[in-house]
């Protein structure tokens, strides 16, 4: 469980995060939902330690991360896996070397054979067992995301962070990536935090959703509660999605609701 | 300006605190040394041979007094290339080649979040990315400067003898005249200082790139111009201090 309490962050006097408190639950896909420029990425970077919040604290399973000693921070960082928006693969290395890299750096006690096994396992897990020798420039965007996921889980992370895992992907690929993230989260019982502005993802994998608007948390709950949420900003955000408008219509007519739409219209367009 | 310098000092300090394992850094340094050194041999050879040749021909053209022996040409080629042309011109050439590639490489890694990816893994990205580049430059610049010295003296020899402005005995006598070993030491000190300036400034420019592809280009250009200016200022300062 990751607890974020009262995080504030401003750039050159412009506040971006205005006191955010929330909890990310273990073994679940936690979604950080919000429009562009609401500070989702900034919050994620504060949580993983790429950025220092001005005020507030972040606790990983009871261990305080912000302002702790370097050793403690380092220990927590080893448990963090992150999938970046543009995948951020090391472009001078092959796919397999990318996945092996964190093992080489973080677990020097592993033998080369153990590392190779682990790389093979992770690539297989994300469905890329044949692409190990390719360079990042030679593979598609969806494959890059898969490699990014394999690299993140290679050192057996406890926390997985994904910044817009669907950006730049077609709807079918998006859903596959979403499902992969959900499966991995449940399989290994990790705490997953996914930044998104995509209502498709909410419907697909949202187990615990936190809605951000202009640097504030306005709502949090489950995907079953989200359609009935009584927050005007959230309503406006949700119903700007045509898919959800359609879902709501089905809901009103037949009580089938979101379940009906996820079954019938998996490839529907997003926002 | 002062703030930039302060950031640069902190950048250098961050590079040597909490470094990665020695074996990791060593392998990275070898990779970078190949990029910096081996890949620059051709351009440095061409430039230095021609500089030696041109220096020889121009000195011969200016030395019309029959009282001055022809061997003076060889002597002057040696002095000019060892003291000034080999270390400085080579470093300026490398500022263009190595500086732009360091800044472009690091800038691209920064804007594509590869630097962040390293940091999230708990890796000190400056120590992993920058330290090997600087050490590789410190090792390779002096070697390339030695190569440049030899080739520019050879270039002078070929130009002098092939164009018939002097005999090979005169040239060889000239380059063996009043040899001061300290000049070589001085040139190598210059090479090491220039290596630090080029690799440090270019890494700094690249590492702190923000924005997109356009900014990576700007960082590369900035790295080259700033490195060249720094080389020339340091060249003057070292001459004033150490000669
Ligand atoms: N490093 C930075 N320096 C200054 N401003 C920033 C920085 N990072 C983000 N911002 C600003 O913070 C705001 C939120 O950005 P971000 O978190 O990237 O939004 P999003 O919710 O789309 O991910 C934006 O207005 C952006 O300009
Ligand atoms: Mg973002």
TrEMBL record, chain A:
<dbReference type="InterPro" id="IPR017871">
    <property type="entry name" value="ABC_transporter-like_CS"/>
</dbReference>
<feature type="domain" description="ABC transporter">
    <location>
        <begin position="2"/>
        <end position="239"/>
    </location>
</feature>
<protein>
    <submittedName>
        <fullName>ATP-binding cassette domain-containing protein</fullName>
    </submittedName>
</protein>
<dbReference type="InterPro" id="IPR027417">
    <property type="entry name" value="P-loop_NTPase"/>
</dbReference>
<dbReference type="InterPro" id="IPR003593">
    <property type="entry name" value="AAA+_ATPase"/>
</dbReference>
<keyword id="KW-0067">ATP-binding</keyword>
<dbReference type="Pfam" id="PF00005">
    <property type="entry name" value="ABC_tran"/>
</dbReference>
<keyword id="KW-0547">Nucleotide-binding</keyword>
<dbReference type="InterPro" id="IPR003439">
    <property type="entry name" value="ABC_transporter-like_ATP-bd"/>
</dbReference>
<dbReference type="GO" id="GO:0005524">
    <property type="term" value="F:ATP binding"/>
</dbReference>
<keyword id="KW-0813">Transport</keyword>
From TrEMBL, chain B:
<feature type="transmembrane region" description="Helical">
    <location>
        <begin position="224"/>
        <end position="242"/>
    </location>
</feature>
<keyword id="KW-0812">Transmembrane</keyword>
<protein>
    <submittedName>
        <fullName>ABC transporter permease</fullName>
    </submittedName>
</protein>
<feature type="transmembrane region" description="Helical">
    <location>
        <begin position="34"/>
        <end position="61"/>
    </location>
</feature>
<keyword id="KW-1133">Transmembrane helix</keyword>
<keyword id="KW-0472">Membrane</keyword>
<dbReference type="InterPro" id="IPR030802">
    <property type="entry name" value="Permease_MalE"/>
</dbReference>
<feature type="transmembrane region" description="Helical">
    <location>
        <begin position="180"/>
        <end position="204"/>
    </location>
</feature>
<dbReference type="Pfam" id="PF02405">
    <property type="entry name" value="MlaE"/>
</dbReference>
<feature type="transmembrane region" description="Helical">
    <location>
        <begin position="134"/>
        <end position="159"/>
    </location>
</feature>
């Amino acid at each position: 469980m990751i607890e974020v309490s009262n995080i504030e962050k401003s750039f050159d006097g412009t506040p971006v995060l205005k006191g955010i408190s929330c909890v990310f639950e273990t073994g679940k896909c936690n979604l950080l939902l919000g429009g562009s420029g609401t500070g989702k990425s900034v919050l994620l970077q504060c949580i993983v330690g790429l950025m220092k919040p001005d005020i507030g604290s972040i606790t990983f399973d009871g261990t305080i991360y912000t302002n702790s000693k370097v050793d403690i921070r380092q220990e927590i960082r080893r448990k963090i896996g992150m999938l970046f928006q543009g995948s951020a693969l090391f472009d001078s290395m092959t796919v397999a070397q990318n996945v092996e890299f964190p093992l080489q750096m973080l677990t020097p006690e592993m033998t080369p054979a153990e590392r190779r096994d682990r790389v093979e396992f992770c690539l297989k897990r994300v469905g890329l067992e044949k692409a190990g020798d390719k360079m990042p420039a030679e593979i598609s965007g969806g494959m890059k995301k898969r490699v990014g996921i394999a690299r993140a889980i290679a050192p057996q992370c406890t926390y997985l962070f994904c910044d817009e895992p669907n950006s730049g992907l077609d709807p079918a690929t998006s859903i596959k990536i979403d499902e992969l993230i959900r499966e991995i989260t449940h399989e290994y019982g990790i705490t997953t935090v996914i930044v998104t502005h995509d209502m498709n993802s909410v419907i697909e994998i949202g187990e615990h959703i936190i809605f951000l608007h202009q640097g504030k948390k306005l709502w949090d709950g489950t995907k079953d509660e989200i359609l009935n949420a009584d927050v005007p900003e959230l309503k406006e955000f949700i119903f700007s999605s045509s898919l959800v408008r359609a879902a709501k219509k089905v809901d009103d007519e037949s009580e089938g609701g979101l379940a009906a739409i996820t079954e019938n219209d998996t490839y529907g367009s997003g926002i | 300006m002062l703030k930039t310098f302060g950031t640069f000092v902190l950048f250098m300090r961050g590079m040597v605190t909490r470094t990665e394992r020695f074996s990791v850094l060593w392998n990275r340094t070898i990779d970078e040394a190949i990029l910096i050194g081996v890949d620059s041999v051709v351009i440095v050879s061409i430039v230095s041979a021609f500089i030696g040749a041109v220096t020889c021909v121009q000195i011969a053209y200016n030395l019309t007094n029959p009282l001055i022996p022809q061997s003076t040409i060889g002597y002057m080629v040696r002095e000019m290339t060892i003291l000034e042309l080999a270390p400085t011109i080579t470093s300026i050439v490398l500022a263009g080649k190595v500086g732009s590639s360091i800044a472009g490489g690091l800038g691209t890694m920064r804007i594509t979040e590869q630097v962040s990816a390293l940091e999230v893994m708990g890796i000190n990205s400056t120590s992993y990315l920058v330290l090997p580049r600087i050490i590789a430059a410190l090792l390779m610049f002096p070697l390339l400067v030695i190569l440049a010295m030899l080739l520019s003296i050879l270039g002078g020899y070929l130009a002098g003898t092939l164009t018939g402005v002097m005999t090979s005995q005169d040239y060889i006598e000239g380059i063996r005249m009043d040899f001061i070993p300290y000049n070589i030491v001085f040139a190598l000190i210059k090479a090491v200082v220039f290596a630090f300036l080029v690799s440090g400034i270019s890494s700094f420019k690249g590492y702190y790139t923000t924005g997109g592809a356009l900014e990576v280009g700007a960082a590369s250009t900035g790295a080259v111009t700033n490195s060249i200016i720094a080389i020339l200022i340091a060249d003057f300062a070292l001459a004033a201090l150490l000669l």
